[in-house]
Specification:
The chain is α+β, with helices and mostly antiparallel strands and 144 residues long. Helices cover 31% and strands 17% of the residues. Strand 1 and strand 2 form a beta hairpin. Bound molecules: guanosine-5'-monophosphate and zinc ion (ZN).
Length: 144
């Protein structure tokens, strides 16, 4: 897609530090290395975000991820964990609107990466959780 920075990277119109490429995905270093080896895995097809995938593309893209994650782990054996992040839409911190998966190797608790899950176990009663689950389940069934 014209004017998409990741399409330009995939098509070699702008440079990147590639770590892997095949017919489905292009994987390269994030320009901002939150930790050493921070990699973006992007589908070669321009899809904006998760809501733009079909099952076949999602399967194909996800199928490549363990291979790349294991390669990062082998490259940097001092790695002690890895976060896989996929941001969808601006509110959820997406800033490039060509879908991508961040692979962020973790070496230390003192690095510059964090995710905060507040504890909200008491926010909903069981019957309210049932209602929420049912609402979603109905939509999943309708879209199957
Ligand atoms: P998002 O915020 O959309 O989840 O992540 C977008 C990521 O793309 C950011 O971490 C940002 O550093 C990275 N990024 C943005 N522009 C470029 C670029 O031109 N080259 C590379 N390698 N990474 C980029
Ligand atoms: Zn694109």
């Amino acid at each position: 897609m014209e004017n998409c920075i990741f399409c330009k990277i995939i098509n070699q119109k702008i440079p990147s530090h590639k770590v892997y490429e095949d017919d489905v995905v292009y994987a390269f270093l994030d320009i901002s290395q939150v930790t050493k080896g921070h990699t973006l895995v992007v589908p070669k097809t321009h899809v904006t975000d998760l809501f733009d995938y079909d099952e076949a593309l999602a399967s194909a893209v996800f199928a490549r991820i363990p291979k790349i994650a294991k390669a990062i782990e082998k490259a940097f054996p001092e790695m002690e964990g890895l976060n896989m992040i996929n941001n969808n839409k601006e509110l959820a911190y997406q800033s490039v609107f060509h879908s991508h998966v961040h692979l962020i190797p973790r070496y230390s608790k003192e690095d510059d990466f964090s995710i905060h899950f507040g504890n909200h176990q008491d926010d909903y009663q069981s019957h309210e959780l049932s209602q929420i689950a049912e609402t979603i389940a109905k939509q999943v069934a309708e879209n199957d």
